[in-house]
Amino acid sequence: MSALTSILNDLSDEQLIVLALANGWSADTASLYDEEGVEGWRWESPDDKTDLSCIGAWDHPRIDTPIREAIVDDLAARGITQSFSM
Question: Which of 23, 44, 71, 79 has its Cα between 20 and 30 A from that of 52?
Fold first, then answer.
């Protein structure tokens, strides 16, 4: 595991979501399991190669383990990490 991947893995879900959205990922609400109308989120990568969904309330974007892994892999491959300024 690269140092960049390790840094990204240490981010909270909320931090990773903000970073992903700021770097080209999109998240839209989705009604999963049409018969049940389960609230969820559909995530797409900037290159449109990754399209994943997870269950979660529509109050703010949610991720699960496969989505987290896809985001971390993508951001690490592009050399993107969270930066802080004072």
Answer: 79
pLDDT in tens, 6-61: 999 999 999 999 999 999 999 999 999 877 889 999 999 999 999 999 999 999 99
Burial class (CB in 10 A: 0-12, 13-18, 19+), 16: buried
Alpha-carbon span 23 to 83, nearest angstrom: 13
Domain ranges (residues) in the chain: 3-77
Q: Which long-range contacts (CB under 8 A, 24 or more apart) does 13-17 make?
A: 13/62, 13/63, 13/68, 15/82, 16/63, 16/68, 16/71, 16/72, 17/61, 17/63
